[in-house]
Design a protein that fits this description.
single chain; 270 residues; alpha/beta; TIM Barrel; eight-stranded parallel β-barrel; 13 helices; 10 strands; 44% helix; binds the ligand O=C(O)c1ccccc1NCC(=O)[C@H](O)[C@H](O)COP(=O)(O)O
């Protein structure tokens, strides 16, 4: 029996097989011309606007913690994120382990104007086509779970389809693969996806390895709960922050998002 990440990818094989039966690749290719052009996420996430760049995540549940929120309403959350300055929205589309749905991408595209990340466990070309055909502006590739050539090929396909991969790393081996594949949007995930444990020391350490490398847009992922974390990592060179749990569990999502962006009541009036 492997770890949870292996289990998720095992289930993903069935998901992909079902999706292919329901929507063959030819159908997805036909949809590509009907979806709006992908937004330029590299610019959106690199530029310092009137607050920190937050990729706010819609995450109903996790395999380790179960439901994060009661009365879950994905589109209500999407609108609250967009109305309160999220630079992008991450949509967990896996249903088995995270309670998500790929249909949230289509719905969110109609409701909000910010770029949408398709956050799933992508390992096939079919899923890259599917992400774009459902309106994603960028998509996740997890370096830990792909070899360097798979990573490069799945990134190249995204490039061909006109959208960007967020390449997620968790250790030095992943960084090597991401740099080999010439990732421009590079995530450092503080969460060990095999155990669920988060440790911000991962970002501190891997940022050190990237010193002197230009042209990268860096995203700090997972375990961000406070404004102080964001200030620390911005000073170390991070451009954007992918945040799920602390927003989903907040008493008031809009206030929490404004606080994380550096736009809470104190900083606005003071
Ligand atoms: O969130 C989990 O527990 C998890 C478990 C197994 C695979 C992936 C998992 N999460 C994906 C992510 O890393 C996060 O959803 C994302 O970076 C936001 O993290 P957080 O702010 O800590 O919710």
């Amino acid at each position: 029996m492997g770890n949870i990440l292996d289990t998720i990818f095992e289930h993903k094989k069935d998901d992909v097989a079902t999706a292919k039966r329901e929507r063959p690749l030819s159908e997805l290719k036909g949809r590509l011309s009907l979806v709006p052009k992908a937004q330029d996420v590299l610019s959106a996430l690199s530029q310092k606007g009137d607050g920190s760049n937050i990729i706010a995540e819609i995450k109903r549940r996790t395999p380790f913690k179960g439901d994060l929120v009661q009365d879950f309403d994905a589109m209500k959350i999407a609108k609250e994120y967009a109305d309160n300055g999220a630079s992008a929205i991450s949509i967990l589309t896996d249903s088995n382990f995270f309670g998500g749905s790929i249909d949230y991408l289509v719905q969110a595209k109609e409701e909000v104007g910010v770029p949408l990340l398709r956050k799933d466990f992508i390992y096939t070309e079919y899923q890259v086509y599917e992400s774009r055909a459902f309106g994603a502006d960028f998509y996740l590739l997890i370096a830990t779970s792909l070899d360097k050539n798979q990573l490069k090929d799945l990134m190249a396909l995204g490039h061909e389809l006109g959208f960007t991969a967020l390449v997620e790393t968790h250790d030095e081996k992943d960084l090597e693969k991401a740099l080999y594949a010439d990732a421009k949007l590079l995530g450092i995930n503080n969460r060990d996806l095999t155990t669920g444990k988060t440790d911000l020391a991962v970002s501190r350490r891997l940022l050190g390895q990237l010193k002197g490398l230009g042209g990268l847009c860096l995203v700090c992922e997972s375990g961000i709960y406070e404004r102080a974390h964001i200030e620390e990592f911005e000073s170390l060179g991070m451009h954007a922050f992918l945040i799920g749990e602390s927003l989903m569990k907040a008493d008031c999502i809009s206030e929490k998002l404004q606080e994380l962006r550096g736009h809470d009541k104190t900083s606005v009036s003071g």
